[in-house]
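Q: What changes when 2-succinylbenzoate is included in the input?
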Amino acid sequence: MTPAPFHLKRITLREIHLPLVEPFAISSGTETVRRITLVEMEDSDGITAWGEGVAAALPNYNSESVDTAWMAMSQWLAPLIVGKTVAPAEVYDLFHKAMRGHEMAKGGLEMTLWGLAAMRQGVSLAKLLGGTREEVGTGISIGIQPSPDKLVEKVESYLAQGYRKIKVKIKPGFDIPYVRAVREAFGDRVPMMVDANNAYTLDDVAVLKQLDAFGLIMIEQPLEWDDLVRHAALQPQLQTPICLDESITKLERAQDMVTLGAGRIINIKPGRVAGFTSSLRIHDYTQALGIPVWCGGMLESGIGRAYNVALASLPNFTLPGDISPSRRYWAQDIVSPVWEMNDDGMIAVPLRTQGIGVTVDTARIDNLTVRSVTI
Ligand code: OSB
Ligand code: MG
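A: The predicted holo structure follows.
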């Protein structure tokens, strides 16, 4: 469904701080309190929608941060759409032609336009995007742990909760013994993968080859955050498929991955690729080639999660996503109902509710807001 154009009257950005229930460590840094950018939009009929920008406090995942995205959204991008008639499916190209980079800033605004369009049209966001699944499979992304034993303890409780995929964050010195410990404790049939967030180089091929022994579904982004050529040199040396995350910022980068043979799976995070139009293009391209994709996460609040769940309901999202229920991240989420996972590790897609499918706790957001700006 292509969303109909509408007149955008107002954008309000807010920054809130939400403490994570446990610190989340990746190779490049640890998050304990998530600085979250929320987007609220209102159209000329007074209809509103909430969305989320996914940039982190520091530019240690990609080159964006909460502060650069705030600046890009408020100063450069919002003026291109506020007070104008906008067609959500055309805003990706508008932003792309006008400004280089800043994908997370662009994505935060572009996705919220889709959320607002779904409200206006009285359909669920998932249906508006072309989603077909009633429920989406859920995997857990486990931050780097202090010891293999501690990791095994965590995996045990996550498997008991029903998670359908175990993703272990790794870095040099925190890799082979950790993966081996999980395999020895739970056997080879547990669907398992690792995510290195750029912690290795081609000098580490020997270690990466050792990972082949563990029958992992994939190795996510072992090399540099913006690399394709070295991943293409690495992939033929491994049996395990490489999945690219950071390196895929738009359709053309997915095409380059295929041309070069730099990977066999893509983690699509709509925020990282500048929104839904870009995500849909990558989805359709990979679907035609039989390349599986799954929906990644950026420790989103229940608002950003709604957008990820909607996207993950599309047909080529064939692998469980990093879409955990609210309680994995937050003592108290900012939406109701909170996101729940059933015992089979599935999250229901709100296909029959209009818009993003959850109600936003605006009073709580008011209390959590540390700054805001209205354009
Ligand atoms: O690389 O997928 C990643 C979180 C922050 C930054 C990067 C990544 C992640 C995750 C979290 O793996 C997944 C989630 O939101 O559950
Ligand atoms: Mg990743």
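Observations recorded in class: Residues 124 and 353 are 5 Å apart (CA to CA).
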